[in-house]
Amino acid sequence: GESVGLHLPTLSVQEGDNSIINCAYSNSASDYFIWYKQESGKGPQFIIDIRSNMDKRQGQRVTVLLNKTVKHLSLQIAATQPGDSAVYFCAENPLGPGGYNKLIFGAGTRLAVHP
Amino acid sequence: EAGVTQSPTHLIKTRGQQATLRCSPISGHTSVYWYQQALGLGLQFLLWYDEGEERNRGNFPPRFSGRQFPNYSSELNVNALELEDSALYLCADNTEAFFGQGTRLTVV
């Protein structure tokens, strides 16, 4: 979950395709994870969360998958739309939701949706 | 219901000056988390306040400080500003699901 610099990895997809954004987290003790969407000039917007006792959770057009064995998290967006274009961050919390600790954010992935 | 609110939206300061940023959590929420997001980077945890007390602190120098008021709003103060303090400063409430829109601090 460390920042890697000015150049975010970019995922380019065609409108209507499915998108998969990946994240490797750092702390094996983390038991709560959140995906955020951040549009230019705005604060992060909560998308979906998942606890470590689950391996999959679905929302509206989004699915989060958790693989604790390899400490990997993914966000799947179905039928990607131009409005989905943003930077996506994963975050982990070692002590659960609202836990007495800080969130550790990944570096982010830029999703670019082309018509 | 109003979300997490931050002010000002933008702030321009000169190197060496002090900056004060403000955050109000959602009504009834007692915690405020502050994060720094430098241009093109992820969010770095700064400070956590709960029930008026500082509960946790990130890896930032002491010139980053703050406080939380009885109404649970919070101030972040940055003293002796340096050029590299230029960033988007974000606060979140105790669920960390809701972030404010941030204050863009520019140090010149």
Detailed description of the structure:
The complex is a heterodimer of chains A (115) and B (108). Chain A has 115 residues and is mainly β. Chain A is 0% helix and 49% strand. Chain B is mainly beta and 108 residues long. Chain B has a 6-stranded mixed β-sheet with strand order 2-10-9-4-5-6, with no helix packed on it. Chain B has no helices and 10 strands. At the A-B interface, strand 4, strand 8 and strand 9 of A face strand 4 and strand 5 of B.
Summarize, please:
The complex is a heterodimer of chains A (115) and B (108). Helices cover 0% and strands 49% of the residues of chain A. With 115 residues, chain A is mainly beta.
Write the topology of this structure.
The complex is a heterodimer of chains A (115) and B (108).
Chain A: E1 10-14, E2 19-24, E3 32-38, E4 45-51, E5 56-58, E6 62-67, E7 72-77, E8 86-93, E9 104-105, E10 109-114
Chain B: E1 5-7, E2 10-13, E3 19-24, E4 31-37, E5 44-50, E6 53-57, E7 64-68, E8 74-78, E9 87-93, E10 103-107
Parallel strand pairs in B: 2-10
Antiparallel strand pairs in B: 1-3, 3-8, 4-5, 4-9, 5-6, 7-8, 9-10
